[in-house]
Please model this.
Amino acid sequence: MTRVKRGTIAHKKREKLLKKTKGFKWGRKSKERAAKEALLHSQSRAFKGRKEKKRVYRQLWQVQINAAVREEGISYSAFIKKLKDKKVGIDRKMLAEIAKKEPQIFKKIVEFVK
Model:
């Protein structure tokens, strides 16, 4: 049986690992063992971050809608309840955008709901 030199495969494996950790601090970008450990942690935190981002944005939209609705003399919870009762299918993201960029249209939505 002929001898198999594994240098190229091992090198490519290392290169691929270090390419993913490019931009990390200290030895985590250049040392294989530290890079592998950093990558394990970063991937799990990235997963959590993607889930968390959805929560954070929803909270932001709620605050923006609440601020706009309070100017019209109604609370956020009452506004959302009335939207559901009238079967208005605009989500919080769109409501926040409308409240920010088109206050006249948002005012009409609030009047329709009242």
